[in-house]
Design brief:
With 205 residues, this protein is of the alpha+beta class. It has a domain of 141 residues. It is 29% helix and 19% strand. The protein contains 6 helices and 7 strands, in the order H-H-E-E-E-H-H-H-E-E-E-E-H. The strands form 2 sheets. A 5-stranded antiparallel sheet has the order 3-2-1-4-5. A two-stranded antiparallel sheet has the order 6-7. Helix 5 packs across helix 6. The chain starts with a helix and ends in a 31-residue tail after the last helix.
């Protein structure tokens, strides 16, 4: 009896890869690889400026004490006449498919009631959406750095588990319809044309 059960289980396990393969998109070359060159062009065509930024820990300390974390990202930046700015990674901007950052922005999930014990409300909102903008314990600071940017040498990006990112304040302000920099909704190449994927729910409180 035990031998029969083990044989049946082994047979089921052999079927798993076949089942998963059958559920994958059938297009040749799947999954598609991001084209950074094309993404840069989309940013510029939509009036943005391409920036490269590095992940740095310790930005609240003297620059000599900063720790370069070895990660560089390419962002698209817009600045409005009122001086406000917004940043999104160029791949999220250019993809025809959704990213978590794009859906979070488009869905405009309401923020939870402000709780001073949670610190920066934009960072807390990012965490409620399943992202993170924190570097370590937060006391030493950290962020995405471009020392040539006179307005925002260090910015805080809400980074989602799929690697997509959008600056935390732009995301937080947009939750109630306030636009910083530019409204990204018509600029995303991804246009759902209907209901958004049901990824996010409103935070409690």
């Amino acid at each position: 009896m035990r031998t029969t059960r083990l044989a049946a289980l082994a047979g089921l396990l052999l079927l798993v890869p076949t089942a998963l393969a059958a559920q994958s998109p059938a297009e040749p070359g799947y999954p598609p690889q991001p084209d950074l060159s094309a993404a840069r062009s989309v940013c510029e065509e939509k009036g943005g400026t391409v920036q490269w930024r590095r992940a740095i820990f310790g930005t609240n300390l003297d620059q000599a004490a900063w720790t370069d974390l070895g990660r560089t990202v390419e962002l698209c930046r817009w600045q409005a006449e009122d001086g406000s700015r917004i940043y999104v990674d160029t791949i999220t901007l250019a993809l025809r498919t959704p990213t978590l950052a794009a859906v979070a922005y488009l869905q405009q999930v309401p923020m939870a009631e402000y709780d001073p014990s949670r610190g920066n409300p934009a960072t807390a909102y990012c965490a409620d959406l399943g992202g993170s903008a924190s570097f370590g314990d937060g006391a030493s600071g950290g962020g995405w750095v471009d020392t040539t940017d006179p307005d925002d040498p260090v910015i805080a990006m809400c980074v989602f588990p799929d690697g997509s990112m959008l600056d935390e304040w732009g995301l937080a302000y947009h939750s109630d319809g306030t636009i910083r920099g530019v409204d990204l909704e018509p600029l995303f190449v991804y246009q759902p044309g209907g209901d958004l994927p049901g990824i996010f729910s409103a935070p409690a409180g």
